[in-house]
Amino acid sequence: MDSDSKSQASDTVETLQKEAEILKKRLEEERQKLNDVTLEQVAERLDCVSCPNIKPRRTLKGHQAKVLCSDWSPDKKHIVSSSQDGKMIIWDAHTTNKEHAVTMPTTWVMACAYAPSGNFVACGGLDNKVTVYPLILDEDVSLRKKTVGTHTSYMSCCLFPNSDQQILTGSGDSTCALWDVESGQLLQSFHGHSADVMSIDLAPSETGNTFVSGSVDKMVLIWDMRTGQCVQSFEGHESDVNSVKFHPSGDAVATGGDDATCRLFDLRADKEIAVYSKESIIFGANSVDFSHSGRLLFAGYNDYTVNVWDTLKCVRVWLLYGHENRVSCLQVSPDGTALSTGSWDCTLRVWA
Amino acid sequence: MEALVKEMQDTESGGVPVRSQKIFLTSIPAAFMGYDLIEWLIMRLEIEESEALNIANQLCQYGYFFPISDSKNLVVKDDSSLYRFQSPYYWPWRNKPPDNVDYAIYLTKRSLRNKQRHGLEEYELEAFTNLKRNLSNKWDIITAQAEEQVKNQKSMKKPDKLISDSQEKAYWRVHRPPPGILGSLEQVPVPTRCWNGVKPRKKTIEDCKREVELLKTSLYRTRIKVSQALEGLLQHVDTYTEFDPLLVPPQPSNPWVNEDITFWQLNAPLVDIPTEKRVRKWGLSMEDLLGDPTGVQEFTNYLQKEKSEENILFWLAVNDLRRSSQSQVLWKIQEIYENYVKHGASNEVNIDNQTMDKVLEGIKNNSRFCFDAAQEHVYNLLLKKDCYPRFIRSDYYKNLLSNGIQPLQKKRFFGFGPTKKKASTTSQPNQSQGSQSSTTVVPCGGALSKRRGSDRSLSGSAHEISHFGVSSGTHTTIIKEPKVPHSHSQSNLSDIPYRVKKPSIAPGASTSEEVCPWETPSTPPRTPTRNRKNSTHLDSEDSSSDISTGVTEMSEKVQRCLLTQQHTLDCGKKLHVDTYETPRRASVSVPITHNNSSIESARRKVSSFEDNSTTASAIHAASSVFVIPSEKDNKLNKKPVDYALSISTTSATMKASQKSHGFAKTCSMSSGAPIISVSSATDDVVVVDCPFNPELAPEEDVDGAHGENPTLEVTTYEVQVPSHPETTPPSISITMQEPKAPLAEPDIESPATELPPSEMPVTNEDVALAECVTDCENDEATTVKPSEGEDDEARNTDVCPWEDEENCKVNTPFVKKYATLGYL
């Protein structure tokens, strides 16, 4: 990532970069010292995961353009999805009914998220803003919208960190930011990526003060939300990191990238511990998520498929066909009973 | 990705099978057949045919090869149709996405040539004219170039010309697809997503410094061996596999697979009887326990029993503080300090000096993280190493475990789905029907009673004191009328029965059908009988409980309302709730305990009403009124202190056909509810009654819910008042909210805005729970009552999983009320 020490780079930048290079090498050495075994070896003794019989159970039709993002409601039944044409739809996925449809004043709504209470959704995209909508049954939702934060570039991802009162966003301006919903105040910004942040995920603990971000600069960074400092970084991907997800144990992070691989990084071992790739998978992964136990990793790809990986044995155990265009987003439901996928073919599907 | 694609292409050109010039009757140069391609892919990648086909199609979409005969559809078929490779020059990632000038040249070229073979399609013509207009200033150059290229082409040999022609055409087919066809090459309009890869932003010195800093620190990070880490992962997966619904089918069934939502009902965030599996999960780790609202509840109850709940409360409060909105941080810090940290605080947490210094330092800065050090201390040393292990080893936990619901086979559920669900949700053991499916449930009931005995505030429902009245107000109008007078009478007496209405019904009438499959016609017939029973026997509750709880609740409600009113009038005598399997239903017993003749009369009236209502409406709106006169209070003082807590849970489940009825009912219900509330609130408080009714009635769809909403609001207000017991319990100010406000509003806004003095905004379920817990703690006596309320609520939630939130919110207010009672 330091390759472009271009002509006008000042001395200090150059020296600093050199220093960084040296440090990186030492770091790699340190990591290697403890690299005594591979995941495949350890997982050899395991039984193969029993093939889950996952089938499409619901198809949500109604978007007029590419579905770009979706999120499960904490009630395990509803889904919010956003699309390229600026529409945001709240679905009762179980009945496949639409409960709300909101038109955003922008196209490419690339992020949407349910609040933990289920009473709000946040979304944003090329408008660079994150907007919160209260979910009110019989009122025009858009009348009550509230713009919470504004980035200097498109907003690629957002989530509520265990609270309705705050929103965490990632943006094309290569930063992440934590906002106070009520006042719209910027509580904390997170600088460290050198390119667009594509995805963020919150650590799965109650006190969780950390989150992970993945970026076009191929880096995966772990952040301390309190201090705004990056506390850990992982390299490995050969191309953009499109999606990051914490392992349910909180000790590892899975990523999906444009290099057609998914990877697993362990926080405690401080290194990459698995690469999920296959010769026949040559298209980028847009979105990843774990099953509740962490045994399965679902990944949505640009080749219209969802591959299901056995995270421990590092083999693909299942391949889900159904969508007729890229799978753009994917998420396991809060209680782990189902998997939702959104695609450029304008539909969402629920698998179980 | 591009690299991979290229590599693939290379392998092909590198002599790996497919690349063959198939010559077909009239020799078609440089082509290959579909099945050859597929076969090669299968061999090369060791994949199955379907996947190979998928990949081939993808590559075709991206323009790496194209069908020769069909220029319209970029589809690869596994047959003998012919395809041709695109020349690398045209590969997608070789060059930037083509601009309009190129396109114009291409179109001009074609227009210059043989009309027959190179004629433009309609959409191309359109594009052509558009381009001509837009690029008029460059048009000369464009035509010149086009002519040039045509000339060049003519000098080529015929086969070459054919190939390059087709390749060019295919290229534009990919990049300028006909309208209506989604191109997979469409870019994300995100700056970095440009094809050639945009240069990364130039690094500033700051960036570099930051990076170096990070690298330095990470160099000395403590790591564990990879083997250790992997072992940990394996173990985690191993432990949790049984809790992974996608690996191990959930019991009783996955709601996405067979529409049966029992699973969700059993596993609602807040339930009075968690499933056995859930309880088992709590035992895995403290995080699992605290990650589950019900788990937190049970844990708190247990600690309360042990008189050491301050730790968990503190922990919860700090967690809330960390994520609360900026404007609330200050007073929340203050509150936590006052309640838990300050020397001599009511719930002082045991913190060592060093940590205390840190905390004090943080408080000075008003940092929302100021208690983090203390929280960590409490969490690791006290909760995790002390309380949690004790909890897991305790009989309390074992009881939970042994009493946990063990969902069985689907069949049972289907057979008795309705009863069971309700039973589980309401935690009512079905006595009458219990024999069928509720055998599992019944023990739960017993468990409940135990828990109650053991101070189980939240979950344990039945208290001796509290009365649970369930009345079914199916006919709203009828019920209302009778109720109203009673309520008034109560008000006159200055007894304060609090009335809380819960919306237990599904949000959408339409959904309700599907959502509440258990609520089927079968239940309605039973209900009338029960109602009658109720009228005749106080025991109606039991029977009702056995049957669909909703129905029973409704009928009981009515009665209880009346009863409660009377009770309140009577200055609320001690109500002993027998710990029946159906503890809440115990309320039935309560009326008995009441010696008031008036009550009896009321009952009769009620019963009559119930009958009418039930018969008339097949649908059931179940409203349960809890009359909880605080025993102590009652006896000690016949003052307004006696609060009759009446909780009416209206569950209006209707069939589609009965929807209209349902509406009417709901409306009526809602109206009735406000009335009741008014009566209860009458003492000192503002009456919130009438206005709601009219407004509610008009509301349509989510009728049940909407109608109930206003009532909910009312209740919440009331609750709030009591929540500040220390102030003046008798003086209660009820603020009216917009009746029409959707569910979400009351939950979020109302509590937050109006309850600011109260400990916390009820917005979050967790928060609400926490509050409840705190309240409960404050009043030990009260705890029992809240438990009942919560149970009911929990049941409601169970019934309608989607309304969990609402219910929870509602619950919190209940709790508060109870708490206040305890204070009194």
UniProtKB/TrEMBL annotation, chain A:
Keywords, sorted A to Z: Coiled coil, Repeat, Transducer, WD repeat
The keyword Coiled coil belongs to this UniProt entry's keyword annotation: yes
Stored SMART domains: WD40
GO terms of biological process kind: signal transduction
Pfam entry (one): WD40_Gbeta
Xref: CDD domains: WD40
Coiled-coil ranges (or none): 6-40
Alphabetized PROSITE patterns for the sequence: WD_REPEATS_1, WD_REPEATS_2, WD_REPEATS_REGION
Gene3D superfamilies (UniProt xref): YVTN repeat-like/Quinoprotein amine dehydrogenase
The WD repeat ranges on this chain: 60-101, 148-189, 190-233, 234-275, 287-310, 320-352
Family indicated by similarity: Belongs to the WD repeat G protein beta family.
Protein name: Guanine nucleotide-binding protein subunit beta-5
Lineage summary: Eukaryota, Metazoa, Ecdysozoa, Arthropoda, Hexapoda
Automatic annotation (TrEMBL), chain B:
Protein name: Regulator of G-protein signaling 9
Domain DEP residue range list: 12-87
Pfam families linked to this entry: DEP, G-gamma, RGS, RGS_DHEX
Residues covered by the RGS domain: 285-401
Keywords (A to Z) from UniProt: Signal transduction inhibitor
GO CC terms of this entry: cytoplasm; neuron projection; plasma membrane
Region (Disordered): 419-552, 778-797
Organism for this UniProt entry: Ceutorhynchus assimilis
Highest taxon of the lineage: Eukaryota
CDD domains for this protein: DEP_RGS7-like (cd04450), GGL (cd00068)
Transmembrane segments annotated in the record for this chain: none
One example of a Gene Ontology biological process annotation: G protein-coupled receptor signaling pathway
SMART domains: DEP, G_gamma, GGL, RGS
Ranges where the G protein gamma domain occurs: 201-260
Ranges of biased composition (kind: Low complexity): 424-440
Alphabetical list of Gene3D superfamilies matching this protein: 1.10.1240.60, Regulator of G-protein Signalling 4, domain 2 (1.10.167.10), Transducin (heterotrimeric G protein), gamma chain (4.10.260.10), Winged helix-like DNA-binding domain superfamily/Winged helix DNA-binding domain (1.10.10.10)
